[in-house]
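Notebook entry, structure prediction.
Reason for the run: the old model in the group folder had no record of what sequence produced it. Starting over properly, with the input documented here first.
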Amino acid sequence: MGCCCSADPEKKGNSVVIKTSIIAALAGLLFGLDIAYVNGSLQFIVKDFNVLPSHEGYVAGFLLAGCAVGALFSGFLTRKFGRKKCLVLAALMFTVFTVVCVLSPNYHFFLGVRFILGLAIGIASFVAPLYLAEIAPYKMRGGLIAMYQLMITIGIFLMFLSNAALEFTESWKLMMLVLVIPSAIMLIGALTLPESPRWFVLVGRDEESKKVLTKVRNTKEEVDFEYNEIRTSIDGSTGGIFELLKKPFFLKVVFLGFMLQTLQQFTGMNAFMYYSGDIFREAGFTNPSVATVIVGLVNMLTTLLAIKYVDKLGRKPLMYGGLAILIVSCAIAGYIFHLKELGHVLTSANKIVLLVFCLLFIFGFAVSLGPVVWILCSEIQPLEGRDFGITISTTANWVMNTIIGTFTPIWFVSLGIDGTFWLFGFCCVLGVFLMKFFTPETKDVPLEEIEMNLKNGMKLKDIGKRVTTH
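New structure, fully documented this time:
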């Protein structure tokens, strides 16, 4: 992926890109920290505010609803104010309202602030992959966007670890204050970021675009080539988003982004992130918090593999492999819980097999759908409609996430944990068909070439094919 400490001047642009990308990807860290916060703190929130069992799901639900609304308006914000300012806004909101949340006088106030925190995460989850896609050279693009997903997994792991370490305090407030540190770091870092060169061209500030490209590319030839590609893309625009929505090629790619993010959520991964403690407790584990920390660790380490191989092997091979692992893992985990439903007492061997396949489930997701869906959704949209297209796909992610977070406990009761696992496994089977017939391979293809293929009427699954060589 290029060494950021190289003395070779040819690597100058790469090192700037990597440093910039790490700062932008911190948005993913906040995403992961707040997703995992509920897993470990919920029992103390419930106790402190005397929350009814039927209202416990609101702690996750209000945050996720805020994420969906934040993502929905992010396209407008990034189009008008730029990518950098929106990242700064998200970090500022997160820092300030985390402190406000800790000071909540009652449960309703707490839920209201959780919704505002959700707005910040929704904005960040929209802007970060978009910004990374637009700042990265095409040969490094997959790995750098995957860094966003890595930060999510690091956030989840660190929050699981932090909550487990602070469990003895029985203080959800102390657990939440931990979140202020990374959000403040992101805020300071975001202020140093360059703006996206593609956004500059989009709003007619071409000279500023060239200045940014000069910083983040290695040679003048690369700068000139990429600027001309962006300029050609803008010059070939269709006349605004409403005109673009009349074009079948754009509707197809927007719908694909929607389906990819829906698939990502209906693998059941976030059901695991929110309720792994309940799942392991139901299976009879004596210390479910330890199993939960192991889940977070596997999730984080596996994402490193995705970063390493997504630009070498490609997007689709990782997706096929991950979906196959998820299907098998859901089938076997569901079967073990089915034995329990039938009245069998789970043996130590049953529990070990369950833990192994739950960890395989995490592995399968983290090496494929976790990072690759964000990568694809950032790559397939044409520049003129990228804000709108990624708004739709990111909002879909949060809406489906809200459904998963809210209804998983209900499905555990109505379908059983076995039936819930089998439902997620069936969704993964459908995902194989989505990959096969509709999803392109985008490895090593410039964004502008993907856009040209799309506009020229290629089938969706073929828009990542190289037509010209550079």
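Summary: Residues 1-7 have pLDDT under 50 and may be disordered.
The old model has been moved to the deprecated folder.
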